[in-house]
Amino acid sequence: MKKAEVKFENITKKFNETTAVDNVSCKFEAGTLTTLLGPSGCGKTTSLRIIAGLERATSGKILVDDEDVTLLPATDRDVSMVFQSYALFPHMSVLENVSYGLKMINVNKEEYIQKSLETLKLVNLEGYENRMPSELSGGQQQRVAVARAIVLEPKVLLFDEPLSNLDAKLRRQVREDIREIQQKLGVTTIYVTHDQEEALAISDKVIVMNNAVIAQEGSPKDLYNFPKNKFVANFIGDANVVKAEILNKQSNSYELKIGEMKIKVQSDKNFEKTVSVALRPEKILINKDKKENSIHATVNNASFVGSSYQYILNSNAGKLFVISGETNDIFKVGEEVFLSINEEEVKILND
Amino acid sequence: MRGLVICWMLIGGLGFLIFPWYVTGDGFFSINWILEYSLEDYGSVLPQVFINKKYWLLPILLPLIFPLATLKLNQNNPLYSKIFLYSGIIGFIYFFLQGFSIGIRGWNFEILQSIFGDVENQYGVGSGAVLTCCTFVFYITHGLSARGWLNGDNFIVGSIGSIIILVSTFVFFPIFRMFTVAFKGTEGGYEISNFSDKIFNKGIWGLDCLYSDYACGVFWNTITMGTLTAFSSTILGLGFALLIARTSFKFKRTIRILSVLPIITPPFVIGLAIIILFGRTGVVSSFLEWGFDIEPSRWIYGLPGIWFAQTLAFTPIAFLVLIGVVESVSPSMEEASQTLRASKWQVFKTVTLPLMRPGIANAFLLGFIESLADFGNPLVLGAEYDVLSTEIFFAIVGAQYDETKAAILAMILLSVVLVVFYLQNQWLGKKSYISISGKGDSGVHPELPNKTKWVIYSTVLPWALLTFIIYVMIMFGGFVEMWGVDHSFTLRHYIEAFSVDWVKERGFLWTGTAWNSFNTTFTIALISSLPTAAIGILTAYLLTRHKFKGKNAFEFGTMLSFAIPGSVIGVSYVFAFNVPPLELTGTGIILVIAFVFRNMPVGVRAGIAAMNQLDPHLDEASSTLNASSAQTFRNIILPLLKPAITASLVFSFVRAMTAISAVIFLVSANYDLAVSYILGRLENNDYGLAIVYSSALIVVMLITITLMQLIIGKRKLGRRDQAAGILQGNLG
Fold this sequence. Notes:
- By secondary structure, chain A is α+β, with helices and mostly antiparallel strands.
- Chain A has 8 helices and 20 strands.
- Chain A has 2 domains: 6-230, Rossmann fold, CATH 3.40.50; 238-342, CATH 2.40.50.140.
- Helix content of chain A is 24%, strand content 36%.
- Chain B is mainly alpha-helical.
- Chain B has 4 domains: 2-147, no CATH class; 218-379 and 454-472, MetI-like (MetI-like fold, Orthogonal Bundle), CATH 1.10.3720; 478-512, no CATH class; 514-731, MetI-like fold (Orthogonal Bundle).
- Chain B is built from 34 helices and 6 strands.
- Chain B has a two-stranded antiparallel ribbon. Chain B has a two-stranded antiparallel sheet with strand order 3-4.
- In chain B, a hairpin with a 3-residue loop joins β3 and β4 (486-489).
- In chain B, α19 runs antiparallel to α22 (403-431).
- The A-B interface holds A 52-54, 56, 71, 73-77, 79-81, 83-85, 87-91, 100-101, 104-105, 132, 134, 148-149, 152 and B 148, 151-153, 615, 617-618, 620-629, 631, 635-636, 639-640, 717-718.
């Protein structure tokens, strides 16, 4: 399969007055899976459609393997897309759906049937070629949509929220299948989702978008461990963002006060007086007994979600969301508790 | 792409060099010119120039062949698009100018005569000229798409261009021609005084009926008729809708049949039935005279009769609009009101009715428009009561033949209807409270309050019975000698209309007097349904799937002819297509064209409704899979729209079978239509034949519609009730 690098150069897309994508530049490395992650309306789907050629950028350039395709319509781009609704042609059989693209570029019949059957085998749909889409389950339809896209051996494969129409159980399975196929073929893949867990699980690189611009990009681990700003910290992993007072500052080491707790954190950026920090909910430890250097809090709400307990606590540092794996020895609403956190788990946010 | 360009150049070349440039005596599509070629009569441009001295045709060649220069150019070269665009525009404009400035008696405008001196006359355009013109249109759209319009999509730009040209030629141009005729002086030329004399006329605006025995002006008559009809049909329609949707009435299915009636009813049927029931010798009148010594009178002729007939005719339309409205009032709102301690009557008064208000206003305005545009009922029952739609007709076909008057009356009618149409679209479109969301709304509508229910039963059911009686009478009225006079059984009328004889050697002979017009009607309705559906679906595709500048104007243009009353269309076609460059009157083509552009909005609406149910991702998926927009249209859109296409085919066919107001102006001896034949019978008081013919039409149309529903019902794929919904939606 061909691999291509996709580049955005200052892409802007306006719909009348609203700006859907605002001067975005980024790179999608050849052969990798990159996720565009963000809340609805952040411009991720529009960016994807610009790559597909279904929308035209208002300004900026889009390059596929250094070839400028900005003005090329979808028909003439070597890019395939899997749609949120799958968009299987309901009047065609599975085989006809999969071979549609090959027919359009005048591949001869024997070849396109053979290729389509091979691709169906790849997505584990052998024997389903004569079914109609309406006779397939959601997961199977999804795989037909994938087969239809990859049979053309595109330079770039696009996914627009492909899992959102599947029930929660199936999602994990299908996303693993997609990742497997992507790695087998090594095709440059761009994947749009609003589900952070899905994005972290599947991607080589994640681009978080918010309000039409890129909030942060990086590997899943980087994003989780080193969020740059409040939005990313909160969107990925529900981190608590709290204000901390700077007590002392020595070169790039800060001594911070969060609630009653004092803590030392590293940062090369320069801050004055206060700073925002992110505290992961599963990294905060709850103790019944008073502890040295901890945050004093009361339990406001406790809910059992199966594998863990989720607490909302009132503290001097503000409202805190905490996840505790301990499900037997639980804290009651109104109980006074003491919160502690390891120094290295406190991340300073840049803005 | 290059192949397409060469193909169009060839078409233009054929049109210019081979096909007859002017319309020939035997008709546009006639191929006589091949059989008996004569350079003088059937000549293409070159013989016309050199034998008939029409030198002005020669320059057309230049823009036609100039794009040959592009064959060696790269498509991305800006020169490429410029050459096509400018050649197309210059060719088209020159074609247009020469066509309009030189008419059947030489120059059409004196000023040109004084500049250029005398010229030879020229006739209407023939097939050659049309082909050449099409090539120019292709040049223009190809030039635009090469410039990058609409992603450089030739198919889309070409379709938009063609539809614009067609709609301008067959909707806007006739209306424009009509306006110019309104300003025509008595001695030729154009005068304001003649126009103002005729428009500020007592016959139109007079209010004498308020204080004297004289009749009021035709304008006031029309408005009165429209208001009364709209009022009564809305009330009855609402009653029927509530009966179906909100009561446990047992014979709902029977009442539902109402919704099909307006589609299959030929124009004069209801008027006719009313005459044979309530006319001087009518069944009811005779019974009243026999039983109660009530002197039979002519009360039914005039406003009461028209009002009566129109209410019968348009109640089903109001019903169709209102049943949608009643059914889409969200039950959860009514349930919310109930849980807030409102009684049944309070729920109805404070929630249900207010939510339906915009829908009711909509039905009212629609009834008003329908009433104003109605031609058949006022013609049959009007007597001394003149309304605009019939006055236009009499100004053209009557003894007084007065083009200016017809044009002015048509202008007035058009203005009134357009204002109401505008109100309906703008004001109500924004005011609708009803929105069906994708979320399931599983509540149950509360029952109507008891008193309301009984009011509805007691008004609506007798009316339903009356409607029923009228249709029964039409179906069986053909079997009696003469209504009101001699009720003995006979097949005489059927034999006269539809007899078929078997003669040895010569086979079947269609000896019935109705066969000729029946066959013409059937053929023309069939032929016109194809382009109607095609243009309708294509337009719907462009409107729902593509964004382009001026899209709103485009939509307005394609929907406009829906609002134009048939008599206005008819009279404007007479003005526009009686003289070169488009000489079409007296042909079958003009009937087909009139049907196509009159019914096109129906096709567009059906198409839009169906397109909105198609996931737009399907076309996008197709285009990411390398299919061009033309391929997407053919492979994805068309197959998925099959039910909508069938529905609009059948619908335009049926409408063409029963249309009267537009075509009554356009029929000719060779192309007589069923409706004008029936009108002729009525004028001779030959009711038997008229009834027989009408019931035959009803049967034919019922069969067609049933067949269609069977065919669509059998399709496995897609939403099953889609086509039925479209059929109903069309009436709304």
